[in-house]
């Protein structure tokens, strides 16, 4: 968990630095950068609970995210009664209206992308009645992401397909910190 936390902190620092650099030099080449955004959301996980059964869990999350012309990234922390999850994702933007709508932010901007996800879960699917029904490990996989930005607000929706037969759907509502 400490190693994953250290890696995630490094990724956040690099993402923040690249975002700051892109904002500083963005006027020179019309680079689109948005964020960083901070917000709340939820993560619904479903999959093998470690005891051979299928289970599901909902976790409220706190998210930080950013967007450039080609990459959307996020980091999140989720917590439940006995469960915690810490992770992040980076998506290559496959389609967007950034170029078409560069001067019209009031109409809203959207993006669609695909990328990778890593998350560390602790006591996911914990059940007081079945002590073996919980997983605590680092999960990796792919995701599809969609985002819509209007004014200073952003809504992101992700579908994660992860190792060990885990599937997650995540949504977040965030506000631009700039």
Features:
Porin, eight-stranded antiparallel beta barrel, 16% helix, single chain, 1 helix, 178 residues
SSE pattern, N- to C-terminal? HEEEEEEEE
Helix content: 10-25%
**Count of DSSP helices?**
1
Unreliable stretches: 24-29
Question: If you compute it from the alpha carbons, what radius of gyration comes out, rounded to the nearest whole angstrom?
Answer: 17 Å
Structural domains: how many? 1
N-to-C terminal Cα separation, in Å? Answer: 31 Å
What composes the largest sheet? 8 strands, antiparallel, barrel
Per CATH, the class reads Mainly Beta
Number of strands: 8
| Estimated structural class | alpha+beta
* Inertia-based shape: elongated
User: What's the average pLDDT?
Assistant: 83
Assign the CATH architecture: Beta Barrel
Strands across the major sheet, in which order? 1-2-3-4-5-6-7-8
Structure in words:
- The chain has one domain (2-176): Porin (Beta Barrel), CATH 2.40.160.
- Strands 1-2-3-4-5-6-7-8 form an 8-stranded antiparallel β-barrel.
- The two termini are 31 Å apart.
- It is α+β, with helices and mostly antiparallel strands and 178 residues long.
- The chain has 1 helix and 8 strands, in the order αββββββββ.
- The radius of gyration is 17 Å and the shape is elongated.
Gist?
The protein has 178 residues and is α+β, with helices and mostly antiparallel strands. The protein is 16% helix and 58% strand.
Fold blueprint:
Blueprint: H1 2-29, E1 34-48, E2 54-67, E3 71-79, E4 84-96, E5 109-124, E6 135-150, E7 153-162, E8 166-176
Antiparallel strand pairs: 1-2, 1-8, 2-3, 3-4, 4-5, 5-6, 6-7, 7-8
């Amino acid at each position: 968990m400490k190693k994953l936390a250290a890696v995630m902190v490094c990724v956040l620092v690099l993402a923040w630095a690249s975002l700051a650099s892109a904002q500083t030099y963005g006027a020179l080449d019309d680079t689109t950068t948005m964020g960083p955004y901070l917000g709340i959301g939820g993560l619904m996980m479903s999959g093998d609970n470690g005891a051979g059964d299928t289970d599901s869990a909902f976790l409220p999350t706190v998210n930080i995210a950013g967007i450039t012309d080609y990459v959307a990234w996020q980091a999140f922390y989720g917590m439940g009664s006995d469960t915690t999850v810490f992770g992040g994702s980076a998506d290559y933007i496959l389609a967007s209206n950034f170029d078409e709508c560069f001067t019209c932010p009031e109409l809203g901007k959207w993006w669609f992308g695909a990328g990778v996800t890593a998350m560390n879960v602790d006591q996911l699917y914990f059940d007081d009645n079945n002590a073996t029904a919980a997983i605590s490990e680092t999960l990796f996989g792919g995701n599809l992401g969609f985002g819509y930005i209007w004014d200073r607000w952003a809504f992101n929706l992700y579908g994660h397909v992860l190792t060990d037969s885990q599937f997650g759907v995540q949504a977040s509502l965030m506000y631009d910190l700039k």
